[in-house]
Design a protein that fits this description.
Elements: E1 13-17, H1 50-62, E2 67-71, H2 81-89, E3 96-101, H3 106-116, E4 120-124, H4 130-137, H5 143-156, E5 161-167, H6 176-183, E6 189-194, H7 212-220, E7 225-227, E8 238-242, E9 248-252, E10 265-268, E11 273-275, E12 284-285, H8 287-291, H9 296-308, H10 314-317, H11 320-325, H12 331-334
Helix pairs in contact: 1-2, 2-3, 3-5
The chain binds iron/sulfur cluster.
Iron/sulfur cluster binds near residues 277, 278, 279, 314 and 315.
Length: about 325
């Protein structure tokens, strides 16, 4: 039976951040000024090993998790990630194993990830305009590198492939229709994400948010779309489809249309802290229990005690005040 939290939400999705490092410095996630050359990233011994991650995955799946998403930082910068994927593939009862990446390392790794058992993949690409994209990733990586990564994923047979674009007013919103036109009819599902006040370092302001309503209207004006039924309860993206039948497009609306009521997600940080909300201030330490001889039953009991009292709904209670005052974990630490 799945574990239920204080709002009767089952634990279904586990996002596992395998590293706090990234080869990009996206301004809305890991601004260069704060994550510079002197930033103290986690040392190897502080990270959960692949064996420790797999042990936890078995426990979480045994308590209702059906989907695991590997994230970071940038998960593909962690060495031999395909080894972890092969281990997770063996977890009995795991239905869905996916990964979110910035795509820059996919050409080199896509085939190995697929052969190890990865089913599908989500690639972040915020703009097709090279100058804008380079400004947003802040390390000068061109659009072509990510598009080639997406092609490598398709060639390797990873799919369905999804592409995520965080939309910030005055930064990349002018390129939304170009992105939609590029992926329309390709089978690749593009999702636009409202700029979120994740962490405390991205300088978030409400007036830089382009809401789902406005994004949909701007796309619809050029490429007619209509709302579509969700695939399942708790699906993060709101599904829309092109009226001409050429596929679907999605919107992730944490600011304007929060979806906490159906949130079934937990996030595990690279050093083994479990966060019950993307906007949580602190996590729950599983690493100590993995290394102090605790039994699986004891760790499972701890998991149940954490989830049962969970009542997070930050996006529903977000106000101008909450944004400024409440400390929150950085998205680069636990993945989106
Ligand atoms: S704000 Fe927290 S509780 Fe709400 S949907 Fe996001 S992660 Fe879930």
């Amino acid at each position: 039976m799945p574990l239920l939290d204080a709002r009767q939400r089952p634990l279904r999705d586990l996002r596992i951040s395998v590293t706090d490092r990234c080869n990009f410095r996206c301004t809305y996630c890991m601004p260069k000024e704060l994550f510079g050359p002197d930033h103290a990233f986690l040392q190897r011994t502080e990270l959960l090993s692949y064996e420790e991650i797999t042990r936890l995955a078995n426990l979480f799946v045994a308590h209702g998790v059906e989907k695991i998403r590997l994230t970071g930082g940038e998960p593909l910068v962690r060495r031999d990630l395909h080894t972890l994927i092969a281990q997770l593939r063996e977890v009995p009862g795991l239905k869905d194993l996916t990964l979110t990446t910035n795509g820059s390392l996919l050409r080199a790794q896509a085939r190995k990830l697929k052969e190890a058992g990865l089913q599908r993949i989500t690639v972040s690409l915020d703009s097709l305009d090279d100058e804008t994209f380079k400004r947003m990733n802040d390390v000068g990586v061109p659009v072509a590198t990510v598009l080639d990564g997406i092609e490598a994923a398709r060639e390797a047979g990873l799919g369905p492939i999804k592409v995520n674009a965080v939309v910030e007013r005055g930064v990349n919103d002018a390129g939304m229709v170009d992105l939609a036109r590029h992926f329309k009819g390709t089978g690749i599902i593009l999702r636009f994400i409202e700029f979120m006040d994740v962490g405390t370092t991205n300088g978030w302001k409400l007036d830089r948010v382009v809401t789902l309503r406005e994004m949909a209207d701007r796309i619809n004006a050029e490429l007619p779309i209509e709302p579509a039924e969700p695939n399942y309860r708790g699906e993060v993206a709101k599904r829309w489809r092109y009226r001409d039948g050429s596929g679907e497009i999605g919107f992730i609306s944490s600011i304007s249309q929060p979806f906490c009521g159906d949130c079934t997600r937990a996030r595990l940080s690279p050093e083994g802290e479990l966060f019950t909300c993307l906007f949580a201030a602190r996590g729950h330490d599983f690493r100590t229990r993995l290394r102090d001889g605790s039994t699986d039953a004891e760790i499972a009991a701890f998991l149940a005690s954490v989830w049962h009292v969970r009542d997070d709904r930050y996006s529903e209670i977000r106000t101008a005040e909450t944004n400024g005052s409440v400390p929150r974990v950085e998205m680069s630490h636990i993945g989106g």
